[in-house]
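Worked example

This section walks through a single chain of length 122. The input is the sequence exactly as stored; nothing has been trimmed or padded.
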Amino acid sequence: MAEKLKNLIKDTEQYLEMCAQVDAEGGTIDPRKHQEKLAHLNRWLMYFQHERLIHLIVTVLFGLCAIMVFGIFVVTQYWYILPLLLLITVLLVPYIFHYFKLENGVQKLYTLVDEMEKRKEI
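Given that input, the structure is written out below as tokens.
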């Protein structure tokens, strides 16, 4: 999914650059093609918003589990709980980085959708 997001952003940026070149040359963009491109982008934006929500929920739950296991360790001083804490942390850290990339990508898509909406009005 991250690769799809990256490709969608790249393709949309290239399309907007092409639109700017056409405008600079005094040409016009086919409004139907532009509307189809915008609809495609909005459809994928909905999928990525859902993906982002699911990843946020899972990331928060893993974070809460890590805090609970750490709290149990502090209270009980059972050393055999530490491997569980290590396992949760090993899963949590990459998940945080993945969520960070997903969140930034979706924010970039919001910006691109806004640019395409403005271009539609011109």
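What to look for: The radius of gyration is 22 Å.
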